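Suppose a colleague, Dr. K., hands you the sequence of a protein chain of 261 amino acids and asks what its three-dimensional shape might be. Before reaching for any lab equipment, you can write down a predicted structure in token form. Begin with the sequence itself:
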Amino acid sequence: GAKNFSEQYILARLIGDRLEGAGYTVEYRDGLGSAVVFGALSGGDIDVYVDYAGTIWANEMKRRDVPDHRAMVAAITDWAAREHGVGLVGSLGFENAYAFAMKGADARAKRIASLDDLVRTAPQMTLGSDLEFLERPEWAAVKRAYPLRFAKTTPYSPTFMYRALESGNVDVISAFSSDGRIAADGLTVLTDPRRAIPGYDAILMVAPKRAGDAKFVAALRPLIGRIPVEAMRDANYRVDRDTDKQTPEAAATWLANRIGR
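The predicted structure, expressed as tokens, is then:
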């Protein structure tokens, strides 16, 4: 299973390649929304996918506290197994957190380095978000922690969100920390001093019927802790860049070679 953005497509192919190497026949279900994908896993409609710790924490567990990364993943592991029979194989080694970003030059000119700084200028600014963010509990948590009032908020697909920032149609976006376009576009990521946004470690999860399948889990375990954020950013940018785009399959092959098969 995969959600509806490039990183998810790449990781699904990376996982599928390992499973095929172990003798499994693999089908892909792409474009699953955050609201349905965990249910698809726990119900056995998909066998494996990558989610993010903060998403499970806020959306599925309905938690508002923000513990450290290790404690959060440990709590999710226990909850997923106890409540749903879902197995958590482990963290892949990188985080894909929500992170508010601006053009570097604009952030410097307006002296905005943090979400606290953003509060004073938000009423004159437009926020661009991905298609889910404005309805997610993380956005509600940010608004509870910071009195942000934007002149306008506009949702986009991720690719068009970055283009809207580049063109000046929006002033700040709800970016993703593992996105290669952050470095490529020279964006400034604003700090979150009040820790409103939880950790988003990428976690590999398997359906109840696979949690006890030693062969299945063994095929996936070599991925745990092996993907640094720099490698994930590079793989994502290969798919998301405007020219010489690669397919998710090609980016997954590149990533497999980068981290070692």
